[in-house]
Amino acid sequence: MSLIVMKFGGTSVGDVERIKKAAEKVVSEIQQGHKVAVVVSAMAGVTDRLEGYCSTMASQTDYSEHDAVVSAGEQVTAGLMALALQRHGYKARSWQGWQLGLHTDAFYGKARIKDIQASALRQRLEWGEVAVVAGFQGVNEEDRITTLGRGGSDTSAVALAVALKADRCDIYTDVDGVFTTDPRIVPQATKMSRVSYEEMLELASLGAKVLQERSVEMAMRFRMPVQVLSTFEDAVGSALPGTLVTEGTLDMEDKVVTGIAYSRNEAQITLVRIADKPGVAAKIFAPLARAEINVDMIVQTASRDDGSTDLSFTIAREDHDRAFSVLEKEKGSIGYTKLLSLKNVAKISLVGIGMRSHAGVAAKMFETLAAKGINILVIETSEINTSVLIAEEYTELALRALHAAYGLGEEDAG
Amino acid sequence: MSLIVMKFGGTSVGDVERIKKAAEKVVSEIQQGHKVAVVVSAMAGVTDRLEGYCSTMASQTDYSEHDAVVSAGEQVTAGLMALALQRHGYKARSWQGWQLGLHTDAFYGKARIKDIQASALRQRLEWGEVAVVAGFQGVNEEDRITTLGRGGSDTSAVALAVALKADRCDIYTDVDGVFTTDPRIVPQATKMSRVSYEEMLELASLGAKVLQERSVEMAMRFRMPVQVLSTFEDAVGSALPGTLVTEGTLDMEDKVVTGIAYSRNEAQITLVRIADKPGVAAKIFAPLARAEINVDMIVQTASRDDGSTDLSFTIAREDHDRAFSVLEKEKGSIGYTKLLSLKNVAKISLVGIGMRSHAGVAAKMFETLAAKGINILVIETSEINTSVLIAEEYTELALRALHAAYGLGEEDAG
Questions:
Q1: What angle do CA A143, A160, A352 make, to 5 degrees?
Q2: Mind telling me how many Å the CA of A26 is from chain B's nearest CA?
Q3: Are residues A117 and A45 in the same domain?
């Protein structure tokens, strides 16, 4: 007998009928002899509506109140799921973050889990009760409600699985698993049967929205097997293979590239002719950090004879205008001749733990893109990822060319 | 400087704009130098929607989950109201029942308040913060969420006012106050400026839906002045006279009748020829109680020569069919010859503390109704109320005739 945490996302519990369907999946696992703790998101659209109320109410949102408001969505789903399970004759009860003792720090809106006091819940699981936990929410030291950021229910689920020493954490979502790349763009994309924590973490941070990044970090840290699978298939996690996120193994390294992520939501700003000396970078990036603008890829050209250089960086497209005006205000302090910007750029990232032991990944990427006439604006590499910035209009072409070049989708890529 | 509890009902916080308007009323009281704790209901329609989800989910609702689900409505309004107050530059924070320490018994769906640990909230009021409390909800000994029944936010407000030793509890609603009778039926009805706790309690229990009955009981027990007033007038409680529910005074007793309540939602069942001997009533009412059917007016005719008698009682109309079939099943045990029912009857009740010291109230009522050709089916009197059951179609006629006969609405009836 295993202990499984089953997490259902917003579309999986999108309305009352879908909650009933999800409850049937839980019943199916129980009937196979497993103990189950369920984690639920808010019904699809509810969090957006509640966030809309908050932003209408105040220009400067107090995130402690924001969290009190938006956590109500998960509270409702948890109670409804418990009722749906009772229909099938099972004992079930809902647990809010504060009831469970899911303690977080005080960073409202993006709180991090500190610990989970799961002993009461575990005791009730032993007695045969099904636990239904409201995802996304916790409580801080002051007994106030916190939320874990968008996608935070994934992290709730993994953290609960860790606290309960569960055998597996199944994340039910509206896709079949993790794909080699976006199948809406590349029809040849295939579902991976397995992916390593490290790769999944890169994919999540690079724009693949299947799992919240923090949930993968936590799974990796505690070596909790996580399975991503479709809520709209009839079978359940113990029978239906989704994508298992797990420890990297030697055979995984045979493949150089496991998956390709992309983000179209990028913009680039270039500062022309800044002084190539210590301290200039701080003058650029400190005011951007104060404005809470996240900077991603940074590249600096070789110094000119006059000691000047150009510096480019990328940011999320919605931050472009703010970043631009921050830099304009700092012109005197930074000392550049002009600002250039590219608002329509995309980032394409190859990910694979095989890169550690294989050379030439970047070279093949450049060749492939060059053959299609795609210009590379910026290159960035890390141990298991190679990313390029290109004009956004080439996104689909680049994805398809790279997917084919690395032999993805030809067979199971796990 | 006073400490005032301001409670806003569902229509008063019906949408984001109305919450902003209600916040302006709070600001107005603060600017007059008062400390304020606010109690809010769910936005209009939200509780109904959440209850609808629950009943779709399960035929036998587990009320502990029902309460977890429906309490989410007040949670949302409380957070939004705190945000709305912050817009005006005030410190404000929301309090859920469990955060406040509003402890109740374990009767989910209809829990009763046991105590409120208001010391933390009071401390913050002293520091100049505005408290916004989610009405309708509390927490029981097991740390599970309970709700106080329909209209329960009134009781939350009065209980909080008592716990905080507030100077007054203002209940903002969609009417101007408590009227001598329903002004939709009797245009001459006027708002009372004052009404005694005892009278208000009778009016509330007899179908006047302005305040939840328990809130009046609690206000009476702790002698907390409660003011009912309109949320849609510009002025606020410290300036706008609504209806003050307060101690009865001698001058109030000059009026025999203060208000007239009615309930159209009545049905009557008569058991013909039951044995007029001890134990028969128990055989009738025990099975009805087991079926959770509330019986109201009971009347038994004088015994016939053969020792048989007829017994009639009234119930809420929606319970009629269930009550009828309960009694059919018990026919053998009770021993009646047949069951008669009247499904369209209404109860009209005169209320006034002056009845204690004035005779002839009932006689005048009967004369007035007789003059209009209205037949009285049942009469029931208590110390400060005289009620009759009549055919429902005469409701408006009876209300208008009685309102005029007792001189209500001619001047301030307080």
A1: 125
A2: 15
A3: yes
